[in-house]
Amino acid sequence: MPPVRHLLDLHQRILPVFAGLLGQPKVLARFNGWPRSKKGDNLRQTLTGYLDAERQHGRIAAGADTEAAAALLVGACYEVVLPRLLQPAGAGEPLEVAPKFLERLVATVLGGIRA
């Protein structure tokens, strides 16, 4: 669960920057062209690498699609954080996310939903 909390915290911290850039497509285009990290990875790729390492240690199933799992986790973080753009009054306040939600999110991604 700590990687998901880290993702949420990261999204909350960068949200004000992007909110101010939405009306400036040239700036957004330049930002989009920058490397995502020292490795050149974007957030999803970085999380996929983390999940791959967990898979190598046997904590995630050998056949697990770590890239899809990473996309789901990053998408869940976007879903929690991005609506704050529409509610600017709460944008500066700490992001309240119940730890139980994070636990259920991770459990669902790790366990799947197939019957």
How would you portray this structure in words?
The protein is mainly alpha-helical and 115 residues long. It is built from five helices and no strands. The protein has helices at 2-21, 25-33, 43-56, 66-81, 99-111. Helix 1 packs across helix 4. It is globular. The two termini are 24 Å apart.
Q: Strand pairing plus helix content: what structural class? A: mainly alpha
Mean pLDDT score: 79
Q: So what's the oligomer here?
A: single chain
Tally of individual helices: 5
How many angstroms separate the termini? 24 Å
- What pattern of helices and strands is seen along the backbone? HHHHH
Using the CA coordinates, give the radius of gyration: 16 Å
Number of strands: 0
Main sheet makeup: none
| Helical residue percent band | 55-70%
**Sequence stretches where pLDDT stays below 50 over 5 or more residues:** none
Question: Per DSSP, what share of the residues sits in E-state strands of 2 or more residues?
Answer: under 5%
Sum up the overall morphology in one term.
globular
Topology:
Layout: H1 2-21, H2 25-33, H3 43-56, H4 66-81, H5 99-111
Question: Could you list some keywords that capture this structure?
Answer:
115 residues, 63% helix, 0% strand
What's this model, at a glance?
This protein is an all-alpha fold.
